[in-house]
Amino acid sequence: MLNINVYKRAIKGDRDAIEKICLDTWEPLYRFIYYKVQNREEAEDITQETYIRSLEYLKKRTFSPDNFLAFMKTVSLNLIRDRWRQKKRSWLLVNFQELNPKYTAQADKENEITQRLFLENALSKLSRDQRSIIDLRIIKGYSVAETAKLLRKTEGAVRTAQYRALKSLTKILDEGSKNNA
Amino acid sequence: MLKGRENDDEKNIEELLSDYIDALNNEREHEIEVAENSPELERLIETVYQVRTLREPGLPDEDYPKRLAWVVADELQKGKDKDFGKQAKARSKSIIKTILPVTAAACLLVFLLVYTLGAFKQDLVYAMEKAVAKLNSYHGLLEIRTRNAAGEEWLSHRVELWYAGDKYAIKQDDGSLTVNNGQKKWQINHEDRTVILLPLLPDPTKSTFDLRDEARQAKQYPYTVTETEMIAGRETVKLVISPPGGEEYYLWVDRETNLPIQLQTAMQKALQTTYTFISFEPNIEIPYEIFAYQVSEGYTEVEEGSGQLVATIEEAVAISGFTPLLPKQTPYRILAFQDRIVLDYGETTIVESIAAGEFKLEPNAYLGSAAGGPLEIWYERLRWRQNGLEIQIEGEKRLELAGEITEDLSIPDANQDLASHAIINVPVDMEIVEANQKQVDSGSSPWQLDPLQVALTFVNLEVTPEGIQGEPQIDMPAFELVSNNSVEAIVYVKEGPIERVYLKRLIRQDESGIWTVVGYDPR
User: What ipTM does this complex have?
Assistant: First the structure.
């Protein structure tokens, strides 16, 4: 972990100190943001804005360097929320508004693993065909045409199967959430 | 009835969902609008987002952390001097996103740098990127000079440029002025005292000066930063650009404004051209009169088929006499001519006309397929025929819009291995190929850029090894390009001892790369 003096120097605008902080923390922060926005350019943008906002904020307040990353994650969540409001991705806001950003940011690792297990468990309940289509289209990122070729289906059949698979998965996830609540 | 409607809705959701997944996969989801009254779709997209968390994130390039640190430090420094809130808007511009304003030679230089950030020293990169992002308008005087191999240099010409948003004006040496104000395009000629109205779209003048194609090619070329130099009274940093297998050329960046102010080509055919902004005022208010259309007293307005801006497709149909095929997206503007309809989507333009005569492909175009026929892919342009119409789409959104007009759009895969299917391999001497590429770069033997011409030469030299005397024995009509994925191509020969010729771009895999025969199938 970086010494508190590095942060103090960074707040004053010391380039070396800022570089040290960025090199030390950018990747976990970026990954955290990427998982939320699923877009490289947007993730890079928000990461940049997060550092600026966080360091500006810390000019006026005291803090402990051991939770700087968690603090930045909270800042980034607020930025994401603002952006999505602007972009009217209202359906994606629901989850954010239900969450306590501060808690989410600090407990994100644990949360991430739980979320992953929860999701993998839900996927395992789908049929083999449905899992394949979700894997190819969403996780591996193949186009409809490529997926159709790989699964020997028509493109129309891929779209229908993908819709049904996601519908089933959504239902399983919703039921799982209710049970966990 | 109700059931039928439900089925339609379901179909629609399936397609919208699929489009959204595609957009997410291509990181272009911001371009997709989801209807607010579709809770089912919203929920499914939420699930898609959740599933995507199982993917490994798309990480930035390796320079990103340093670039990030630099931008953060710079913004914090600014925050000291200026009101933080006022800066927020400018700061929200991504460090990887650049505004590429309009065109002209200025933008050539800008593009070259924007696309080649990785090779700069870090501080120069960021400063340049910032300067580019802030370039919304400018006024400049561009001087074009030519030098011969004997070292003699002369002024070829000068142009004065004004740019602001989508408007521009270009004044030539002879005083003639070409203006596009986004609503109209015209040229004022003082010699014959005319004001010629020109078609607003597509606008070839825009690309006359910016040489964006070169810039695009250059983005993958290696660069080095060399010394500082005084250019047009300004201190600049010189950059050497080295295209693989080609000659080096140079770019100079103003140290104070961080904008590029000079470009020098390689010496080609004993001539070298230098483009220099002898004055350049970025981000200034351009006087309103520059872009205002007016016919001065004593001048005659000349109509040269400038087309007519119309509000609806129906009006366009009434003028042109045919119904165009339309993408789902609504165009910003529609321009109707007697023989064609132009749909304007900002950076992308669609031109549709009645198909007439044979569909001739650009010899060096890549080949795909659309609407059951050939699709020509030529730089940023797609062209094909469908339902008796010829459709041409040029610009950034060409694939997206083409996909909305025709469902069976197929783009060639550059990774597809075509050449290995040749029955007989032709050995290649890379030294000769490199020399040929340099020769073509300097403007000689451009036929080597055309796979049909290269195949014709090869086949005829096989038939008459002593050399082609007069007309070739097997002439061009016998040669047909059957595949071209931009890296490899196959030419079918209708007669003679060779049935197929396999070619590759061995030096550069873009439009400037020469084709070399690597194999053939005997008949």
Answer: 0.79
